[in-house]
Design brief:
Length: 237
């Protein structure tokens, strides 16, 4: 598994994809953070993190679109499937490489942003809220990356992989708007149970929610499992 992880990290760091993702994330993060906290002279970072969730609908597809699509297009997929690595090892190594770049870049952006805020803030930073949001963003990011990995496994076209990943992630974020149009209390509660925004809200208040954590981890596990199933079928076919 480690050689595949190492190869993917090397690919990110020696191709435009990794640098484009990092540059765009850092730039967007800085601009949004400036508008929502620094210029407002507030230490409440919940708006910043919530807006960043929607930015990931564009950023994460950039990160995941080539993970398996490129293997199919360049016909190196068979080399992977015949290598002495389990399907789980292949899928998880690619997921972990994408998550490493995502988490590392986001950690750098948070460090820069909150150091800047600390210098201009008129009161102490709310560290429980900040840490809660960071944990929530990492959990949501892991779930979204798993979705991108799965979509990338379905096609050799990177653009299609990116667009479908974008669509699924956006739908999961916008589902929180539906309850206001539905009269049935049961249906409303069911939709809220699946809503990413409603789950993430706990973390914006600095509250570590076990149910929300299980929800996001479950999404990641389900989509990674589906990706494994896709490649198990390809291996036997």
């Amino acid at each position: 598994m480690y050689p595949i992880y190492k190869r993917e990290m090397h690919a990110y760091l020696t191709s435009p994809t990794g640098y484009i993702f990092a540059a765009v994330l850092l730039a967007i993060s800085g601009v949004i953070f400036s508008f929502t906290t620094v210029w407002m002279r507030t230490t409440d970072s919940s708006v910043y993190f919530t807006v960043m969730l929607f930015m990931f609908t564009v950023l994460i597809p950039i990160l995941t679109m080539k993970l398996f699509s490129e293997e199919r297009k360049t016909r190196t997929e068979q080399i992977l499937l015949t290598s002495p690595v389990s399907i789980f090892g292949i899928v998880f190594a690619k997921f972990l490489a994408a998550f490493t770049l995502y988490a590392g870049t986001f950690a750098v952006s948070c460090f820069i942003n909150f150091v800047s805020l600390r210098k201009v803030a008129e009161k102490a930073l709310n560290f429980p809220q900040i840490m809660g949001n960071i944990v929530g963003i990492l959990l949501v990011g892991g779930a979204f990356i798993a979705i991108g990995v799965f979509m990338s496994s379905l096609t050799e076209n990177q653009a299609i992989a990116a667009v479908t990943t974008f669509g699924v992630i956006l739908a999961m974020l916008l589902i929180w708007l539906l309850p206001s149009f539905i009269n049935s209390p049961v249906v409303r509660e069911l939709i809220k149970w699946f809503s990413v925004i409603d789950r993430f809200t706990y973390f914006t208040h600095g509250i570590f929610s076990v149910t929300a954590t299980v929800y996001f981890v479950s999404i990641a596990v389900i989509f990674l499992f589906l990706t494994m199933r896709v490649y198990e079928m390809r291996r036997w076919n």
